[in-house]
Amino acid sequence: MDEALILVKLRGEFSGLVTPYLVRFFKKFYRHLSKPALIRRVHRALDKLEEKDLINSEVVGSFRFVKLTEKGYRAIPEAVDLIRKAGLHETLKKVVSESKPLITIRLRASQEWWFVANKLLPKSPSRFSQFDKELLDMSFETWKERVEDKVLIFLDENGEYQFIEYTTRFTNETYVKQLLAKYNHAWKKASEEYDEAVFVTITLPPMIPLYIQKYAMSFLWHRIKAYLRKHYGFTPPHIYADEPQTNLSHHRHGILFGISRIMDKNEFTRWLDNHLINFLSKMGYHIQKTVNNRLTEEQVKALNKLGKKLLKRYLKYKRKHPKYQGPINYLCKLIRKGNLWEWENPPPDYLKYVEKLQRKKNKFFDGASLSPSDYLKKYLVKNLNAIVESNGEENKKGADEGEGGGGEGKKKEGVVNKLAWYWLCRTRFYSVSPKFRMQTKEKPKQNWKFVLCTTKNNLDDFLSVIT
Q1: Any residues with CB less than 8 A from the CB of 44 and at least 6 apart, and which?
Q2: Of the residues 129, 161, 175, 219, which has the fewest C-beta atoms closer than 10 A?
Q3: What are the φ/ψ torsions at residue 197 (nearest 5 degrees)?
Q4: Quick one: CA dihedral 275, 277, 281, 283, positive or negative?
Q5: φ, ψ for residue 56 (rounded to 5)?
């Protein structure tokens, strides 16, 4: 196990490390050992690795200097598997991050994400300052610059090294085109099977912490689907898009197909309010079900305790705003006539959206099309435009100021790059039911083993080791 830990520690250090760094690294795993015992343990592991020709070492001054050999890089996948089987991979993640997470739920993410997430996600959007939004912007841009410079290195079945450029949904134009094609396919499938639907919008109150809002929205959406399944006898398929409001609160626009109504708006508002209170009162239990029982018992207890605090804050928020009866929402029936969907009663900002489309053409829109499909698509298109355009300035409008993706004027104080919100909250651009998903051919599985992720600048150093 000690040898595996050293291999993983050395894989990104092309110039090598001296033993004091490895001793401090081992201290994270063996806190009960004294410093002399740790030094002996490190040297024993290094001797074994050198006997197997996995590392090279030399004495520099009074320190032992070590670096991986080409054979050592090939042994990294087995070392990672050994660490995972021993159950030390979670401990290794904590050691690498070197930060105590304030977020109760464990997530796999980059150091840049954890840095800003620990500062912003536990906050409620109502408490975000202008500095918080600027910090989110800068962190997201820093992360993008770093991932664009990364390269993934694998070992294929023949023992040859394979190099793949690191891509994400925020940096890959091909992914943008695939997203739009899948969205259009979903609408095509929906139009073939259904001739009526209901458009629904839900906005969560800003006093709920940002990382809890994602689970609260998921809970409310599943309760809506469960209610409709009981009422209609089947689960209506959906297409929905999430986006932030100007204050970064979670905002969802969705379409449920095959139904004519949900309930009256006032009744729906009170219904949402009751279920939001239910969610907060047993928050740990509900989030546990949302994440497929991946939380520990301690995490569930911590979330339950937090949920009770948030429930008190929510009830106080309701007392402070007497007219507030529950999460803000909007309902509208949709009817299909031929191949076109029409509104029975368009949303309040619909005319404003149409006016903006007419003033400024959008590369993904047909300016003459005013269908619900395009109205919902605008939330997707604004994000896709920002990915395609490197400066992303068009995307830096708030949800209420830049609905059509074509607003004019200078960037207002306090608005944030909306892509940064998706990155921070780890939220999809849109979602469709399984029956609407585009069927794609599965690529043949490649039995490649991951070696490491490095930067393009360090790629020459890696090549000099293996050649």
Answers
A1: 2
A2: 129
A3: -160, 175
A4: positive
A5: -115, 140
- pLDDT surpassing 80 at residue 93: no
Number of Cβ within a 10 Å radius of residue 150: 16
pTM for the complete prediction? 0.74
What ranges do the domains of the chain cover? 1-95, 173-436
The whole-angstrom separation of Cα 28 and Cα 308 is: 35
- How many angstroms separate the CA atoms of 359 and 298, rounded? 54
Domain 1-95, architecture per CATH: Orthogonal Bundle (1.10)
- What the block records as the tokens of 85 is 């089987």
Length of the chain: 467
Return d(Cα 154, Cα 149) in angstroms, integer: 17
CB-based burial label for 355 (10 Å; 0-12, 13-18, 19+): exposed
- Alpha-carbon distance 316 to 309, whole Å? 11
3-state secondary structure of 264: coil
Report the distance separating Cα 341 and Cα 370, nearest Å: 9
Would you say 45 and 21 are in contact if contact means Cβ atoms under 8 Å apart? no
Asked if 223 and 276 touch (Cβ cutoff 8 Å), the reply is no
Q: What is the pLDDT of residues 409-467, one digit of tens each?
A: 344 444 457 888 998 988 888 899 999 998 877 777 778 888 888 888 888 777 777 76
- Contact (Cβ atoms closer than 8 angstroms) between residue 376 and residue 241: yes
Where is pLDDT greater, at 403 or 286? 286
Long-range contact set of residues 15-24: C-beta below 8 Å, sequence gap at least 24? 15/67, 15/461, 16/65, 16/66, 16/67, 16/68, 17/65, 17/66, 17/67, 18/60, 18/63, 18/64, 18/65, 18/66, 19/43, 19/46, 19/63, 19/64, 19/66, 20/63, 22/46, 22/66
Q: CB of 154 within 8 A of CB of 138?
A: no
- Pairing relationship of beta strands 328-337 and 196-203 according to DSSP bridges: antiparallel
Question: Helices 210-232 and 283-290 sit at what angle, rounded to 10 degrees?
Answer: 70
Q: What is the DSSP annotation of 283-320? A: HHHHHHHHTTT-S-HHHHHHHHHHHHHHHHHHHHHHHH
Are residues 201 and 268 in contact, defined by beta-carbon separation less than 8 angstroms? no
Q: Six-digit token pair at 31? A: 């806190």
